[in-house]
Specification:
Blueprint lengths: L23 H6 L5 H13 L1 H9 L10 E6 L2 E6 L2 E2 L1 H14 L3 E11 L2 E8 H17 L7 E5 L4 H13 L2 E4 L6 H11 L3 E5 L2 E3 L2 E3 L1 H12 L6 E5 L13 E3 H5 L11 E2 L3 E7 L7 E6 L1 H14 L10 E3 L6 H9 L8 E4 L10 H9 L3 E4 L1 H10 L2 H4 L8 E5 L5 H11 L6 E4 L33 E4 L12 E5 L9 E2 L3 H8 L12 E9 L5 E6 L3 E4 L2 E4 H9 L4 E11 L3 E10 L7 H14 L8 E4 L13 H8 L15 H8 L4
Parallel strand pairs: 4-17, 6-7, 6-8, 7-14, 8-11, 11-12, 16-17, 16-18, 18-19, 19-20, 29-30
Antiparallel strand pairs: 1-2, 3-13, 4-5, 9-10, 14-15, 15-23, 21-22, 22-24, 24-25, 26-27, 28-29
The structure holds adenosine-5'-monophosphate-propyl ester.
């Protein structure tokens, strides 16, 4: 085990004793009414996964039934073996066929606010069915077919939801790339997925500025040369000037023109690929996490229903503020929510445009009942001031959620008081791109909450705090967070890299008898009540504003600049982002270490990866602290970046003078 992944001595300094039980009214109305009811259902889901998941799956539509609920040959799981279904059908057509075609499926709000207010588009299930079908037929006319991987690099417009659902409809997988990523990042992902089609927009609105999405795609295509995709489909959004390559580029509108509004859903095997989503790991190359159809569908459907306590016909309006470029947007804006027949709000813009009360304005105008956001946003709201939420009527809210990183109890309490009016349960949902859906989370009517804890495992989730030998640790002992049994939405692999899949998730926690557990990569503890407390990553991954970045990825970007010889990147505490990025760089001889270079390097990382990866702090140094075997001692760098005196053990440090130099060199 490397220095940075050591779990020995994980200690929690957090002491949080407050408990918030759901009100009697919330419990009475909920799907699961009490902690005892949760416990009984959870026990059943673990003891009899076939029975439990088989029953849930029957709530959705299948063309033909499965022969077996689960086939587990560790680390490979197959769920609903042999079953045929279509996720687009279950999101859209199933509602139309049941007579709900006119009900709102998506309530979209654009960022710009003109004289007449913000632009709002409400799309019914029938509208979605028509729009998706026409676009699906358009894609087919370009030769897109079942089994292809279509790249999606768009802003938060309704066409983004239509695009992914159209892929699912015809059996093409999608690979959505967050609109904040750079041309280089697009190029890398397109090659990895051998994608022949990209769907994009001319631009997208972000705090009043236009993000030039099509320009980035053009640049990526140029980098790709012969490997560039054959088709680029462009949604007109900002009407900004764009370049055009005839024969390759197609306007979305023109492609859909004249297409039939009917396009049959392709019956997909339960284990057919639904999507690939790239996420950071400990090496420089992002991993294409693969999710398949049936298990992901059933799991995101049930977690949406239970975690948010969604019920159709009760006026629920659900809003998740994530971008569809992240897994949260996949599972909890689209795939899990739509089969529950509750309208899902899609918002194009930033929380503080045109003013810091924009989110609360959206909540009040659309009478949002369920609101799901990230701790980093909550910390920003706290900082911007109470007057902004106080200006708006937030009484429609019923359930609040958080995701992406541990929420500090102070932010939790503010959310509870200021946004939830002390009446809304908060669901702190722990999960990952790899898990597909919520894994550890309260259920609003059943599980009392503790600020800062994601509480208890979801149905079917056998979570535990263990050692590398798979031994379960006692109450409040810090260790590795592991999942001991397969669950329906678990990743099925890393695209094109079987070895990395096995090595990253399944090799590190093994019992002496050979049983492997899924390693989440987080350190955590479980308290005496069985509540989980996430303590952060145990590998070289940092969580910036709830988004994962590999330190190696940022390091590779830095050393790809001609001035940088070696770089070490670590996380450091950051008031709003939770974790900020600190980079320590040694420079080529003759290069001047100054603020101009810092600026250049930040911009360079922005170009290589995207703005989210720009270091918050760059320090130049002649040497980095290393062990005698040459391994960078990140622990020491973390201490320095967070302003702590390097109090830890330095006996393995080769050159003790290095620390002195790094501490002196304290100019950001
Ligand atoms: O470290 C955990 C943190 O985010 C990681 C997963 O990141 P990603 O795959 O990008 O997915 C984020 C959205 C699901 C986890 O390994 N994390 C996520 N949710 C929580 C969390 N940490 C603490 N509490 C959470 N609720």
């Amino acid at each position: 085990m490397s220095e940075s992944t050591s779990t020995s001595g994980i200690q929690s300094v957090l002491q949080e004793d407050r408990v918030f039980a759901p009100s009697a009214a919330v419990s009475a109305a909920a799907h699961v009414h009490s902690l005892d009811a949760y416990k009984a259902l959870h026990a059943r889901s673990i003891a009899d996964p076939d029975g439990f998941w088989g029953e849930i799956a029957k709530e959705l539509h299948w063309y033909s039934p499965w022969s077996k609920v689960l086939e587990w040959d560790q680390p490979d799981a197959k769920w609903f073996v042999g079953g045929k279904t279509n996720l687009c059908y279950n999101c859209v057509d199933r509602q139309v066929d049941a007579g709900h075609g006119d009900e709102p499926a998506i309530i979209w709000e654009g960022e710009p606010v003109g004289g007449g207010g913000a632009e709002v588009r409400t799309l019914s299930y029938a509208d979605m069915q028509r729009g998706i079908s026409r676009f699906a037929n358009g894609m087919k006319s370009l030769g897109v077919k079942k089994g292809d991987i279509v790249t999606v690099y768009m802003g938060m417009v309704p066409e983004l939801a239509m695009a992914v659902l159209a892929c699912a409809r015809i059996g093409a997988a999608h690979s959505v790339i967050f609109g904040g990523f750079s041309a280089q990042a697009i190029a890398d992902r397109v090659v990895d997925a051998s994608s022949q089609t990209i769907i994009t927009c001319d631009g997208s609105w972000r705090r009043g500025n236009i993000v030039p999405l099509k320009e980035n795609v053009d640049e990526a295509c140029k980098m790709l040369g012969e490997k560039a995709p054959a088709n680029v489909i462009v949604v007109k959004r900002c009407e900004n000037e764009i370049g055009w390559t005839a024969g390759r580029d197609y306007w979305w509108g023109e492609l859909c023109e004249g297409q039939s509004e009917e396009c049959a859903c392709e019956p997909m095997d339960s284990e057919d690929l639904l999507f690939v989503l790239y996420t950071s790991g400990t090496t420089g190359k992002p991993k294409g996490i693969m999710h398949t159809t049936g298990g992901y569908m059933v799991y995101t459907y049930l977690t949406s229903k239970m975690t948010f306590d969604l019920r159709p016909d009760e006026g629920h309006v659900y809003w998740c503020t994530a971008d569809v470029g992240w897994v949260t947007g996949h599972s909890y804006i689209i795939y899990g929510i739509m089969p529950n027949r509750v309208p899902t709000v899609m918002f194009e813009g930033a929380p503080n445009h045109p003013g810091p009360d924009r989110f609360w304005d959206v909540v009040a105008r659309h009478k949002v009942t369920h609101f799901y956001t990230a701790p980093t946003a909550i910390r920003a709201f706290m900082k911007w001031g109470d007057e902004h939420p106080q200006k708006h009527d937030l009484s429609s809210l019923q359930v609040l959620g958080t995701v992406g990183e541990p929420i500090n109890p102070e932010a939790w309490m503010w959310y509870h008081r200021m946004i939830g009016g002390e009446r809304c349960p908060i669901v702190d949902t722990w999960w990952q791109t790899e898990t597909g859906g919520h894994m550890i989370t309260p259920l609003p009517g059943a599980v009392p909450t503790k600020p800062g804890s994601c509480t208890v495992p979801f149905f079917g989730v056998d979570a535990a705090i263990v050692t590398e030998q798979g031994e379960e640790l006692g109450a409040d002992e810090g260790g590795l967070l592991a999942i001991r049994k397969p669950w329906p939405a678990m990743l099925r692999g890393i695209l094109g890299d079987r070895d990395r899949f096995v090595a990253t998730y399944w090799d590190d926690i093994k019992k002496p008898d050979g049983t492997r557990f899924y390693k989440a990569g987080d350190g955590a503890r479980r308290d005496k009540d069985g509540y989980f407390w996430i303590m952060g990553r145990v590998d070289d991954v940092i969580n910036v504003s709830g988004h994962r970045l590999g330190t190696m990825e940022v390091e590779s970007a830095l050393v790809s600049h001609e001035t940088v010889v070696e770089a070490a990147v670590v996380g450091m505490p950051h008031e709003i982002k939770g974790t900020g990025i600190a980079a320590f760089c040694t420079l080529a001889s003759g290069v001047t270490a100054d603020d101009a270079l810092r600026k250049t390097l930040r911009a360079h990382v922005g170009n290589e990866i995207g703005a989210i990866a720009k270091p918050d702090l760059i320090r130049f140094t002649d040497v980095l602290p290393k062990t005698r075997s040459g391994k960078i001692m990140r622990r020491l760098l973390r201490d320095i970046a967070s302003g702590k005196e390097g109090s830890g053990d330095t006996t393995t440090l080769e050159d003790k003078g290095v620390l002195e130099q790094l501490r002196k060199n304290d100019k950001g």
